[in-house]
Amino acid sequence: MAPTAPSPAKSASPSQPSGKSEVSDLKQQLRQLAGSRAPDADDQRRDVFKRVISCMTAGIDVSAAFGEMVLCSATSDVVLKKMCYLYVGVHARAHPDLALLTINFLQRDCRDQDPTIRGLALRSLCSLRVPNLVEYLVTPLTTGLKDPSAYVRMVAAVGAAKLYHISATTCLDADLPAALKALMLSDPDAQVVANCLHSLLEIWTLEAANSEAAGREIETLYSKPVVFYLLNKIKEFSEWAQCHVLELASKFLPSDNNEIFDIMNLLEDRLQHANGAVVLATIKVFLHLTMSMTDVHQQVYSVSHIMFLDMQSYSCSTIILLILNLWKS
Q1: Rounded to whole angstroms, how far apart are CA atoms 102 and 73?
Q2: pLDDT-above-90 percentage for the chain
Q3: How far, in Å, CA of 134 to CA of 136, rounded?
Q4: Cα(123)–Cα(152) distance, rounded to whole angstroms?
Q5: Cα–chain-centroid distance for residue 190?
Q6: Residue 217 has pLDDT above 80, yes or no
Q7: Residues in domain Clathrin/coatomer adaptor adaptin-like N-terminal (predicted)?
Q8: CA 292, CA 320: separation in Å to the nearest integer?
Q9: CB of 51 closer than 8 Å to CB of 14
Q10: Among 103, 119, 121, 200, which has the highest number of CB atoms less than 10 A from its own CB?
């Protein structure tokens, strides 16, 4: 029997990068494209950027191309920006010395005319999570909270909480929580308001463990002006944000029965919401508010029992089982 001929070696496909030689080749191409003004330069950069991201997702160390990637980021192409920001975000934490190279171009992009690029750059800047670079975050965040674009303000509101996790002192010294609260109570965009609320609760809840002042700040979020302001806007919020607002309302202490009925009237239609989490959060508010009103509390309890059963038509079976077990207990 004739020996079996050895199978030819498989060549690496574009989707399966070969390693160091591939990275060296990518660096060379990026250098050539860095200052190119050719009409198709952005298209060529896209192809090379895609290969870099492909290497990165395949587990190949492409940090050697960091400088070249930053040089090629000087473009108005949003897709290129996104890929570059993704690359920078992955490698900055592992290589803080290289992350310093990104500060100038990210700060420049935070001042770009395109609000999409401003928002993406600010998000990437706040995602670097390099303690030595926190001083460069304060000004872009402060400016971002005042940006004319709701998208940028929304990103800045989340970025403030990210800064707190990197350096709580820097966040508090810059008075970002006060700026978030002012924005929450004045911004016309519902998602910006929701992000401000989420960041404030996150910051003050963590800070309350070490500061009595933070505890008092949390109490102001449970005050009547804040709670009623948010409840009056609740229909504008996403389902996720509605649950946050309802959780806040469940900790509000009304001063009289009129306030209780005002809140229940505001939230009555949330009981018919298509999202089960919103319905459950609303019922929680009603049960909390009526604790001192035995007859009304019992009515809410009875109605909620019926609504729990109705939720079987659209809710996850696991959630239904948990609800019924809770009800039996």
Answers
A1: 10
A2: 46
A3: 5
A4: 9
A5: 15
A6: yes
A7: 28-293
A8: 28
A9: yes
A10: 121
Higher pLDDT among residues 230 and 92, named by residue: 230
Q: Which amino acid, residue 113?
A: Q
Spell out the residues 6+ positions from residue 315 whose beta carbon is closer than 8 angstroms to its own.
Answer: 276
Residue 125 near residue 110 (C-beta atoms within 8 A): yes
Both tokens assigned to 322: 């948990």
H or E stretch including 224? helix 224-232
Query: For residues 284 and 274, what is the distance between their CA atoms, to the nearest angstrom?
Result: 17
Say if residue 329's pLDDT is above 70. no
Name residues whose C-beta falls within 8 Å of residue 302's C-beta, 6 or more positions apart in sequence: none
Taking residues 321-329, report their average pLDDT.
Answer: 54
- Give tens-digit pLDDT for 48-74: 999 999 998 888 888 888 888 888 888
Helix (H) or strand (E) holding 323: helix 317-328
CA distance linking residue 288 with residue 278, whole number of Å:
15
Residue type, 103: I
Token couple for 23:
């990275």
For 18, 28, 130, 132, 180, the CA distances from 92, given in Å and listed in that order, are 24, 21, 7, 12, 27
User: Which residues lie closer than 8 Å to 94 by C-beta, 6 or more apart?
Assistant: 63
At 285-319, the pLDDT tens digits run: 998 888 888 787 777 777 776 666 666 555 556 55
Distance CA 249, CA 234 (A): 11
User: For residues 291 and 327, is the Cβ–Cβ distance under 8 A?
Assistant: no
Please tell me whether residue 244 adopts helix, strand or coil conformation. helix
How far apart are the C-alpha atoms of 185 and 181, rounded to whole Å?
Answer: 6
Residues in the chain: 329
Q: Is the pTM of this model over 0.90?
A: no
